[in-house]
Amino acid sequence: MSVRNMNSEVIYEQFGQEAYFFVLKKVKDTSIANDVLQNAFLKIHKNIHQLKAEQKVRAWVFQICRNEIANYFNKESAYQNGSELDDSTYQGPGEHICCFDRFIEELPENFQQVIELAYIQGKPQEQVAETLGISLANVKARVRRAKAQLKKRFLDCCKYETNAQGQLVGSPDCSVCR
């Protein structure tokens, strides 16, 4: 697909779920993650005309997400009476929600690695393959299998459901998440 045929809907279909988990890992709250992602895709929609190269779409999307995460935390810090936020002591809303970290830690090591590099650090899958010394096809297979395991754990533990697009929706409803 050429850049001229790109639109925000296509970009969301390709990168929306990956971007959501990236944002969720940073903000630790599903409703905040949804808000941040919505703001990011609004900016993507408004600025899509600036996109020059198709191969840079993913990096562009994740940079906008990073900027929106920073905007969120900057706005939150304004409500802290001007005090500096310390990452080691800050307990944001929903800091331990959703079992997300536990689910990733429970994945087999080879799945943890690809999820950490591709979704948490936001590296392109080609770079993940190079870093791990495996083929791109292997990275894609591991990502697919890891996502299936994570999705199953969310559905079983936290009582999330999947919508028509196959994305997790709902709110946590397990003893760990409450």
Overview of this protein structure:
The protein is an all-alpha fold. About 60% of the residues lie in helices and about 0% in strands. The chain is built from seven helices and two strands. The chain has helices at about 10-25, 30-45, 55-80, 100-105, 110-120, 125-130, 135-155; strands at about 160, 170. A two-stranded antiparallel ribbon has the order 1-2. Helix 1 (about 10-25) runs antiparallel to helix 2. The model is unreliable at about 80-95 (pLDDT under 50).
Helicity, in percent?
Answer: 55-70%
Q: Which word captures the global form?
A: globular
List the uncertain runs. Answer: 81-97
**Into which percentage range does the β-strand content fall?**
under 5%
In N-to-C order, the SSE pattern is: HHHHHHHEE
Number of strands: 2
Structural class: mainly alpha
Our Rg estimate from Cα atoms comes to 17 Å
Distance between the termini: 44 Å
State the helix count: 7
Q: What is the arithmetic mean of pLDDT?
A: 78
Biggest sheet statistics: 2 strands, antiparallel
Report strand order across the widest sheet.
Answer: 1-2
